[in-house]
Amino acid sequence: MLVVVGATVLLAALVGTASAGRLSTSSLGIKATFARINFAGGVGTVECEIVVEGAFHERSISKTRGTLSGFLTSARITRCARGGVTVLTETLPWHLRYDSFTGSLPNITGIRAGIVGVAFRIREPSFGIECLSRTTAEEPGTILFNRETGTGATISASVGGTVRCGGGFTGTFSGTTSSLDNGSGTRVTVTLI
């Protein structure tokens, strides 16, 4: 009897985690306004505000590492406090590829994706030195969508990455925002299905 009860509990646990093979979003659209993205490396740190918009391919996304899940179709710098950045718009759209989740099933706290194709011309603040920077499949940028456990709402997003910059040096970029919605002011929710 004890073996049957143990096997039943184990089977129920396996079925509960196996059924969470996909993520479901409440909206296809996504918009994020980063009040400050830092580009560091070389001589100084560049600080700029950027707005990005995009879309998921489908409302249901496979939790398989590397799966193309959406695109960032628009990116614009609204202002820079230090230095300057130009978005190389001819490289849009940028690819979002599912990477992993944070937390533990079934209560995940975040969803991480790689961002491939992000391309900027960066001008550092001290000497005006410019370099071109682009994320690749081998060296992607990352975005972590932080999720509210109870509701599944995306409450913030953090970006980061290390990129090569012309001139023989490597730089980093990073930033966090809580200004994240579907493009119409409604938070995007993500649930396990």
Shape: elongated
* SSE pattern: HEEEEEEEEEEEEEEE
DSSP, total strands: 15
Q: Summarize the biggest pleated sheet.
A: 8 strands, antiparallel, barrel
Helical stretch count?
1
| Distance between the first and last residues' Cα | 33 Å
Give a short overview.
The chain is mainly beta and 193 residues long. The chain has one helix spanning 2-18; strands spanning 22-25, 29-41, 44-56, 60-62, 68-82, 84-87, 94-104, 107-116, 119-123, 130-134, 141-147, 154-165, 169-177, 179-181, 190-192.
Could you characterize what this model shows?
Helices cover 9% and strands 61% of the residues. With 193 residues, the chain is mainly beta. Strands 2-3-5-7-8-11-12-13 form an eight-stranded antiparallel β-barrel. Mean pLDDT is 87; it is low at 1-19.
